[in-house]
């Protein structure tokens, strides 16, 4: 007998488990096989977890919704690629992780799913987590989910229906929240009298359909059905019970290796595959190949880190049970291996396995005849193996000393863990739905066919899968020469195009008050840090400067590629503070970005894909250190590129960044503002051309940015924008002391066209660029100081904001007074957005100023007799009139005429706002506001307008051709009821802040867009769509991206 380290021979000992003959599991069987649980009625739970396939689908990666033949299960099941649905082009599988078996799911006590996203919070362990606190993806503030159910399996059963690619689909359920989707499923079921009858019988209850059919009972039934799938009657169990002949001598040798530590010459498998369930239910980095679409746009899968946000958990996955493993190939979280032998051989030596693995994937049955390719599969796997070598699991798992004979013995042992009944299809029939058993109440029961006729009915045709759309929509182009549009294609129901990930919402998410107002976020959506300075922040050689009072910045972008906009703050002494967006439910602090790089205060931040790898890199601009750093995104870490690598000379104080392809060479260039109080300085560059490999070249002089600076550099808020509608990005700078500038791109450089009789803002700081009058060109709003409460301010002008209206050819006219936007107080961050979703761009502006007591006190104490206290206190009093000013919200009444309505919208915050971003944080269909406040916590104002009958919307994000992956410079037009709106995709500066590179349109009362047109960067390609439903978040790929 092998002395195995197994506490119990029978893993079911001490567990109360349902039987398939019980009423509730029988109902669960019908639900498990019902396509009515999927959004488009094309998929059932059994599509990926059929009993004849050992509770899996026998595929490396599943094909959920949009299958060519929805009834074909297992090998041969392929994807019907619909460009208007699927984010990843090609015919590859659309689910990112291998289907874990449902067999013996009742034996898991701590965590469900590969990444353990449904898991027990309590320290003690109970069978299947019964009665314990369970955290799920629906949990708020990372606490227990009160609706998780009575055990882990019930908690797990709530989520496959919510997955876009597994069951949700792209049709009528695609835009619903998780709870709304579950309610819609219940509505389907309770509308059918036979389903209601089945629920009554199963739960022995009476009542109305509303009382009888609930989602809690749906998950209870699904859970009990799965929990009844107990298959543990194995040769190994017989052997442990005393039958020495139950397993072969080779298997016994394998068992000895399995249970013996590596240090004693064994394989040490038991260190993870422990207990009678053969899993410790912990999370380990195995170094297994990462293939398929992955969990983000780079084909990566961070594993457990997606749940915990802890860098130590990156690429870690739950230890799978080995019970019945010989029947559940392919193996690994991504289905990377076909046989147990190759799995174990790689497992014990990933470094060697990396060098021999077939990254063409043609050795995997599923991919042999598919045309899809994954260019990053090798790179991603190399990253995983590198992490494995750094992790504690390297010592635990790495065992290159094992011989082929040893591996064969281990295979023989693992094969003994398979239940005898899995070889007998008749023994599995009680778990397979059928009409005879009454499992087809509404005619939606999955009746599967198989490419292997030995499993059941052979498939006679490939059919056509339900897709949520009708005919796949083609992309339309303008000819590169003539610019003649091909007649547009009318889209059907689903307009989701190239959606980024499962987390990408395709419609309203959060619930709000449906009012024209903002509310200040609290709780999980509040920020936890404070912008702080000390007197050293103000010191300048032998004096001090109040210019640190200008500071508090932020940048917004999807730095972890989960489809939700994250926020990074430049927070004074606290350095860079990063918050990851927890799907609109709250913020998760992250330490991925360094707080400090050098001694300087970080002032301005930028988020853009610098190297064209579809990852958002981060740029730091400093206040005192006067250096600019680029941080290459290697999520969840970043690589710092300094001056020696970027060729960016000292950048002085950085006050804003913009990104765009000014020379139309396909990559992303940078534009920076550098306000400084130093005179006669060696001028830093502003226009920086991307030369590749993280290097930039300053082009100010060679490209004609003449007149931007003189002896001083007072540039703020740079923006790339096509002002004259010629397809080339021009340059706009706001500037202090009448230094706002306009430069028109002439193809070889820039021509300064600033008309000083028109561009008259005295202290231009914040900026917003947009088509405020919907006439097809970009206007320019500049924030400045308005002194209505004081007769004068030393040095500064006080005539307020400016609105410069474009004549369509780049000619600007000052229409400030007729627009009604002059008074913004001491204005800083400014953004343009359609806050009321009526189809006209509005303007939001933060303001305030302060001369801190610590500066005055320092001056008086440090330089006695040099500073006059009464003058300083008088100056402090002048500035104090801006201390408690409220933000401004200019609502566009149409044609670019505005009314200030901040109070009516509940915007009464009097904090010192500086940098801002206007974006839809919670993806509910309206634009929220994030503000970096000086000497205070940041704030989030949540817009409540979405959901009103006059507040429909469309949001579009573009996927461009690398290296301009965000399609910066593209223009998006929508036409609704004869009115056309235009947005330019940009990453410009609002003042120490930016909006994300996506465009938002309000459509008012209209629920349908007559035409959506995209003119891609350079103007040679155009995409046209008609009949697009509103209330969508679309991600649309360039027509030349391989499909």
TrEMBL record:
Chaperone keyword on record: no
GO MF terms held by the record: electron transfer activity; heme binding; metal ion binding; peroxidase activity
Keywords, sorted A to Z: Heme, Iron, Metal-binding, Oxidoreductase, Peroxidase, Signal
Domain Cytochrome c: 249-418
Keyword presence, Transferase: no
Gene3D superfamilies the record matches: Cytochrome c-like domain, Integrin alpha, N-terminal
Family annotation (Pfam families): CCP_MauG (PF03150), FG-GAP_3 (PF13517), UnbV_ASPIC (PF07593)
Protein name: Cytochrome c peroxidase
Species this protein is from: Fluviicoccus keumensis
């Amino acid at each position: 007998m092998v002395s195995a380290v197994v506490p119990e021979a029978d893993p079911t000992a001490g567990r109360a488990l349902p039987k398939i003959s019980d009423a509730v599991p029988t109902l669960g069987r019908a639900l498990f096989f019902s396509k009515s649980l999927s959004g488009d009625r094309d998929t059932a739970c059994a599509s990926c977890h059929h009993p004849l396939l050992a509770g899996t689908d026998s595929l490396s990666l599943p094909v959920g919704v949009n299958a060519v033949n929805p009834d074909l299960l297992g090998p041969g099941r392929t994807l019907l690629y619909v460009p208007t649905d699927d984010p990843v082009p090609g015919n590859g599988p659309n689910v990112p992780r291998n289907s874990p078996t449902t067999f013996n799911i009742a034996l898991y006590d701590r965590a469900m799913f590969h990444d353990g996203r449904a898991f027990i919070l309590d320290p003690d362990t109970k069978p299947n987590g019964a009665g314990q606190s369970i955290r799920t993806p629906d949990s708020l503030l990372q606490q227990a989910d009160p609706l998780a159910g009575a055990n882990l399996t019930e908690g797990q059963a709530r989520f496959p229906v919510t997955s876009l690619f597994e069951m949700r689909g792209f049709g009528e359920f695609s835009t619903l929240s998780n709870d709304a989707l579950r309610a819609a499923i219940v509505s389907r079921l309770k509308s059918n009298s036979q389903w209601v009858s089945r629920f009554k019988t199963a739960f022995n209850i009476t009542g109305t359909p509303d009382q009888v059919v609930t989602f809690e009972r749906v998950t209870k039934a699904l859970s009990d059905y799965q929990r009844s799938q107990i298959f543990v009657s194995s040769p190994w169990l017989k052997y442990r019970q005393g039958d020495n002949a139950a397993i072969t001598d080779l298997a016994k040798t394998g068992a000895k290796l399995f249970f013996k530590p590596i240090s004693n010459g064994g394989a040490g498998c038991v260190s993870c595959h422990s207990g009678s369930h053969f899993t410790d239910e912990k999370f380990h980095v195995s170094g297994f190949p990462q293939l398929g679409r992955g969990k983000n746009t780079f084909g990566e899968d961070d594993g457990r880190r997606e749940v915990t946000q802890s860098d130590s958990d990156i690429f870690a996955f739950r230890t799978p049970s080995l019970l019945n493993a010989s029947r559940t190939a392919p193996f690994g979280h991504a289905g990377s291996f076909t046989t147990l032998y190759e799995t174990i051989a790689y497992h014990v030596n990933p470094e060697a396995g990396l060098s021999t693995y077939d990254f063409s994937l043609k050795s995997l049955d599923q991919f042999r005849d598919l045309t899809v390719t994954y260019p990053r599969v090798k790179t991603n796997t190399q990253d995983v193996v590198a992490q494995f070598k750094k992790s504690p699991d390297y010592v635990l798992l790495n065992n290159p000393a094992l011989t082929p004979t040893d591996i064969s013995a281990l295979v023989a042992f693992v094969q003994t863990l398979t239940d005898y009944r899995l070889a007998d299809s008749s023994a599995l029939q009680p778990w397979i739905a059928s009409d005879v058993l009454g499992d087809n109440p509404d005619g939606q029961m999955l009746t599967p066919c198989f490419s292997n006729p030995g499993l059941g009915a052979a498939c006679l045709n490939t059919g056509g899968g339900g897709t949520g759309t009708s005919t796949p929509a083609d992309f339309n182009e303008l000819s590169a020469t003539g610019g003649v549009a091909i007649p547009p294609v009318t889209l059907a129901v689903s307009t989701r195009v190239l959606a980024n990930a499962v987390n990408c919402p395709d419609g309203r998410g959060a619930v709000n008050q449906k009012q024209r107002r903002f509310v200040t976020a609290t709780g999980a959506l509040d920020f936890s840090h404070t912008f702080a300075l000390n007197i050293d922040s103000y010191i300048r050689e032998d004096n001090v400067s109040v210019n640190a009072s200008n500071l508090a910045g932020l940048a917004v972008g999807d730095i972890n590629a989960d489809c939700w906009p994250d926020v990074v703050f430049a927070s004074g002494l606290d350095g860079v503070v990063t918050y990851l967006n927890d799907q609109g439910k709250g913020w998760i602090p992250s330490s991925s970005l360094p707080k400090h790089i050098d001694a300087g205060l970080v002032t301005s931040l930028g988020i853009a894909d610098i190297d064209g790898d579809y990852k958002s890199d981060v740029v730091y601009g400093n206040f005192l250190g006067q250096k600019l750093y680029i941080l290459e995104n290697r999520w969840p870490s970043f690589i710092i590129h300094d001056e020696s690598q970027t060729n960016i000379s000292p950048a002085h104080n950085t006050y804003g960044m913009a990104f765009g392809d000014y020379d139309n060479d396909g990559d992303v260039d940078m534009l920076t503002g550098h306000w400084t109080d130093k005179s006669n300085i060696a001028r830093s560059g502003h226009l920086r051309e991307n030369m590749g490999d993280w290097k930039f070249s300053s082009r100010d002089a060679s490209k004609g940015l003449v007149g931007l600076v003189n002896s001083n550099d007072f540039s703020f808020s740079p923006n790339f924008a096509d002002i004259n509608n010629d397809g080339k990005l021009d340059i706009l700078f706001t500037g202090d002391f009448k230094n706002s500038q306009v430069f028109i791109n002439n193809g070889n450089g820039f021509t300064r066209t600033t008309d000083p009789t028109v561009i008259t803002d005295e202290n231009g700081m914040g900026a917003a660029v947009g088509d405020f009058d919907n006439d097809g060109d970009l206007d320019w709003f500049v924030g400045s100081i308005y002194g209505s409460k004081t007769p004068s301010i030393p040095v500064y002008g006080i005539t307020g904001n400016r609105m410069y209206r474009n004549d369509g050819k780049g000619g600007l006219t000052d229409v400030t007074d007729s627009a009604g936007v002059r008074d913004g107080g001491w204005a800083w961050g400014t953004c343009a957005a359609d806050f009321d979703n009526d189809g006209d761009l509005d303007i939001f502006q933060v303001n305030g100023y302060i001369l801190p007591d610590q500066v005055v006190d320092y001056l008086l104490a440090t330089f006695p007799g040099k500073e006059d206290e009464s003058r300083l206190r008088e100056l402090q009093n002048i500035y104090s009139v801006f201390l408690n000013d409220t933000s401004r919200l200019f609502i566009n009444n149409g044609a670019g005429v505005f009314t200030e309505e901040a109070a009516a919208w509940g915007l009464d915050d009097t904090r010192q706002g500086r940098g801002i971003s206007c974006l839809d944080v919670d993806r509910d269909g309206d634009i929220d506001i994030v503000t970096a406040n000086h000497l205070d916590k940041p704030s989030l104002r949540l817009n409540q307008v979405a959901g009103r009958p006059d507040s429909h919307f469309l949001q579009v994000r573009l996927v461009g051709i690398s290296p301009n992956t965000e399609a910066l410079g593209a223009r998006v037009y929508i036409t609704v009821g004869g009115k056309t709106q235009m947005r330019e995709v940009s990453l410009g500066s609002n003042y120490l802040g930016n909006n994300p590179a996506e465009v938002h349109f309000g459509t008012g009362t209209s629920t349908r867009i007559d035409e959506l047109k995209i003119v891609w960067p350079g103007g040679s390609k155009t995409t046209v769509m008609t009949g697009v439903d509103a209330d969508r978040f679309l991600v649309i790929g360039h027509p030349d991206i391989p499909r």
